[in-house]
Amino acid sequence: MTGAEAFVPQTRDLAELAKAARRCEGCPLFRDATQTVFGAGPKTAKVLLIGEQPGDREDRAGAPFVGPAGRVLDKALAAAEIDREELYLTNAVKHFKFTTAERGKRRIHKTPSRTEVVACRPWLLAELDAVSPEVVVLLGATAAKSLLGNDFRVSRHRGEILHVAGLIDGQDPALVATIHPSAVLRGPSDTRAEAFDGLVADLHTAYFTTRTVRSEGSAGSGTFMPATSPVRK
Length: 233
Prior knowledge:
Order of helices and strands: HEHHEEEHEHHEEHHE
Helix content: 25-40%
């Protein structure tokens, strides 16, 4: 596995990055996926959301968060009074990883490996460099670990406003980790409302962080020290 670095052009133009990503063969996932699913949203976005990987609907449409989890996210954003059009949405992994069932007709999501996440990380770093958001929302464990290392636990830091010195060259975005919208769908029916409300609260925290002056002493903020070295280009 070579990784995506050799396929990432030296540009901050999102259209050029998306075009180049369509030709990426940095890990074996490109062989079975329909297409690369790059991020979407304005270059001026103050908030950037990172999910795990595209699902079946996203793989077919070529756009992030357009399937069932995307509908949950849209509902949560609306409840938090956030306009999706203001956000940049992407995934830690750009190709759909799946297994097949029912005689190969149904494609079932399969969690990407740590090796696949690391291989795809150059694309994520390029998006972060191009957008330069004030806040990064990490939707689920895979997204969080893609930037903060394999030891990071969403359950321990969920909803906190985190800063990691030197995580990304030239940037110091606030980081907010929360559940992936698909966790609301997969959870027990009697706890889905609570899970959804928690997601709404975390999104609200992240979005309105861009409207406040952050300080080291502000409530709910902190510094996370990853076990791994800072992520650099």
